[in-house]
Amino acid sequence: MMPVASPHENPHVLVLLFCYKVNAMDFESAVKTINNLLIKERPDTFNSSWVLKCAPGVYRFIQKNIRSETGGIDWDRITRALAPEFPRRWNGLRRNGSKTYRNRAEVKAVLQKYQDKLYAFLTPADKKDKYIRDIISIALVRIAQKGNMTAKREVIKLIRLTVDEWIDHCPKLSSWRGRDQLIEQRIERCIRRYRYSGSFVGYLFKTLECEGRGLRPIIACSLDDPICSGDKRKSDRIGQDPETGEVLIY
Fold first, then answer.
1. Could you give the CA distance from residue 248 to residue 242 in angstroms, rounded to a whole number?
2. Alpha carbon 113 to chain centroid, angstroms
3. DSSP assignment string, 121-168
4. Considering only Cβ atoms within 10 Å of each terminal Cβ, which end of the chain, N or C, has fewer?
5. Do residues 72 and 131 both lie within one domain?
6. Mapping DSSP to helix (H, G, I), strand (E, B) and coil, where does residue 248 land?
7. Which residues of the chain have pLDDT under 70?
8. Residue 138 near residue 76, CB atoms below 8 Å
9. 57: containing domain
10. How far apart are CA 34 and CA 85, in angstroms?
């Protein structure tokens, strides 16, 4: 049997071993490598450039194999799989001043992939459904952040199903009932501000929960209702200022 040269004796062996490790890499080993690097280096933030610099072989594997529905690198999939303390440190490239456009094909690529899971926005049965709901919403949010107005409208339409369920069943969000325009504004703002790869739905819930504490519930009533069970009705207390035209309640 012929002796096999060691990497120290033959540099070509080292190259072959390196190529074998890159080719043998899978998603789990790529995530494990990034996790170990983050534990070792402890950066305050990190991004794709940091991964390229610290682990070029891992970056090349991700660039080739971990792609989103629209063709870019799916960094959300990577960062979601990291240890819990690391996703918030992710500092992806900001898209400031992106030009708006409409592209239904980008949205369709996501919806077709998960068309049998869209029910999760209305009636998620378990944690797995909630996880899929986050996958779909984040994919659409990332497209919307590039400026795709079609994706933004789709996110709002789907997320409103979830928000309406929250309002009906969660006392903490009951003060949002009847504030459709304000809810849509808050969803749009969350789409713009969402950065790290945690739950977008959870981020929106916390936003509505915090802001809802300062909202007074809207109580529906009829102007024909009597005042203090007397003869006068609430409509009798409504008048108009003759000078300004402002409608006033006396």
1. 11
2. 17
3. GT---SHHHHHHHHHHHHHHHHHHHTTBHHHHHHHHHHHHHHHHHHHH
4. N
5. no
6. strand
7. 1-24, 93-97, 197, 218-250
8. yes
9. 1-92
10. 13
In sequence order, what DSSP letters do the residues of 203-234 get, joined into one string? Answer: HHHHHHHHHHTTPPPPPP--TTSBSTTSS-BG
Measured between alpha carbons, how far is 225 from 234 in angstroms, rounded to an integer?
A: 6
Q: For the chain, give the number of residues.
A: 250
The Cβ of residue 245 has, within 10 Å, a number of other Cβ atoms equal to 7
99, 180: one domain: yes
Find out whether 200 and 134 touch, Cβ atoms under 8 Å. yes
- DSSP of 84-131, one letter per residue? TTSGGGB-PPP-TTPPPB--HHHHHHHHHHTGGGGGGGT---SHHHHH
Alpha-carbon distance 91 to 1, whole Å? 53
Quote the pTM value. Answer: 0.72
| Tokens at 135, concatenated | 């996958």
Give the phi and the psi of residue 147 in degrees, each rounded to 5.
115, 0
Q: Do 205 and 181 have their domain in common?
A: yes
Sign of CA dihedral 170, 173, 175, 181: negative
